[in-house]
Design a protein that fits this description.
about 230 residues, globular, Dihydrofolate Reductase, subunit A, alpha/beta, single chain
Length: about 230
């Protein structure tokens, strides 16, 4: 696969001053006001983040229909990485006015029952990887099948960590909230296996610093050696 054909990937998270995302009283209006101003053809999220955000799913109304995604629709796609086939809240996302359509990234190990579930509802899915989703292959599918040249990652630390460790992220955005949370459990925007040496650290280049409102700081970094170009 040619790295030049991968989408341009931006990771964006709201964090406390000490880098935590749990128990954060995030300013969602500010966060999504910034996020929706970014170039994005697709918004990528992990299944764990989706399940945590919507723990109780309203039943899908029988006979529900949804409009087909149009080529001239400038809204982004909403895409979930879901190897285990756990997300069953697609009808809720389809009803939101923010996205042109929804799609799933699955693996060859994803249960056939789940693929049938998606097919029956007209939800697009792309198979990438064997035991779990191969993120590079999945991003390539988004570029080729959805023409997604710009991807914003709206997820937790595990998906962010996997993308960063695999060198698939071009920019990192952080919206720092004026609060500290503390704690001993890991909860940051970058969760990945510990490094055995100094090799593997990810160097970032600070592009800009802004204060979108009193007390809040928005940092934008470029990954030192991006693998994709918009």
């Amino acid at each position: 696969m040619s790295a030049a054909k991968l989408p341009y990937v931006r990771v964006f998270n709201a964090v406390s001053v000490d880098g935590r995302m749990d128990l954060l009283d995030a300013d969602l209006e500010l966060f999504y006001g910034i996020a929706m101003g970014m170039k994005q053809d697709a918004v990528l999220s992990g299944s764990g983040t989706v399940l945590a955000a919507i723990p109780e799913v309203e039943p899908e109304k029988e006979g529900s229909t949804y409009p087909e995604a149009r080529e001239d629709d400038e809204r982004p796609w909403f895409v979930v990485v879901d190897s285990k086939g756990a997300v069953r809240s697609w009808h809720m996302f389809r009803a939101w006015p923010y996205f042109r359509g929804v799609a799933a990234l699955v693996s060859r190990a994803t249960p056939q029952e789940y693929l049938d579930y998606l097919t029956a509802r007209g939800i697009r899915y792309f198979v990438a990887g064997d035991g779990q989703v191969d993120l590079r292959e999945g991003l390539m599918a988004l570029r080729n099948e959805l023409n997604a040249r710009q991807v914003r990652v709206d997820s937790g630390g595990r998906l962010n960590g996997a993308l960063l460790r695999e060198g698939l992220v071009d920019e990192v955005h952080v919206l720092i909230h004026p609060m500290m949370i503390g704690g001993m459990s890991p909860s940051s925007m970058f969760l990945a296996p510990d490094l055995g040496s100094k090799e593997g650290k990810i160097a970032l280049e600070l592009v800009h610093v802004r204060r979108p409102k009193p007390g809040y700081v928005w940092l934008r970094y470029k990954v030192a050696k991006p693998l994709a170009e918009p």
